[in-house]
Amino acid sequence: PLNFHAEEFETSLMLHLHPDLVDMTKAVSEYPPYSLDYEMSTLPMGALSESGVFGDATVATAEKGEKWFNRCVTNIVKVWEEFLDLPTDESGGLYKIN
Questions:
Q1: CA geometry: angle at 24 spanning 69 and 62, to 5°?
Q2: Alpha carbon distance 79, 3 (integer Å)
Q3: What is the Cα–Cα distance from 62 to 19, expressed in whole angstroms?
Q4: pLDDT band (50, 70, 90) for residue 36
Q5: Under a CB-based contact definition with an 8 Å cutoff, are residues 45 and 54 in contact?
Q6: How far apart are alpha carbons 48 and 36 in whole angstroms?
Q7: Per residue in 63-81, pLDDT tens?
Q8: pTM of the shown model
Q9: DSSP 59
């Protein structure tokens, strides 16, 4: 099933980063009917999901959040290191890369 908002991933990250802001007694698993059109919609999440959850927040843990957070940070650092290694011209601008 599709996970989209306030689900396992996002709730786990919050449990890791700001556990004081998460009340797991209110966690739910909700999978509203989903249309690919929603991705381009201006509808608020409340119009799609009664609880605001689109996925399963009940399986979230701080341990998962820490693991995913560290993986995300590692990958962001990798991307920046690759970006900083790109060739530049004498003014510091990037050369066109094909």
A1: 25
A2: 25
A3: 8
A4: low
A5: yes
A6: 12
A7: 999 999 999 999 999 999 9
A8: 0.78
A9: G
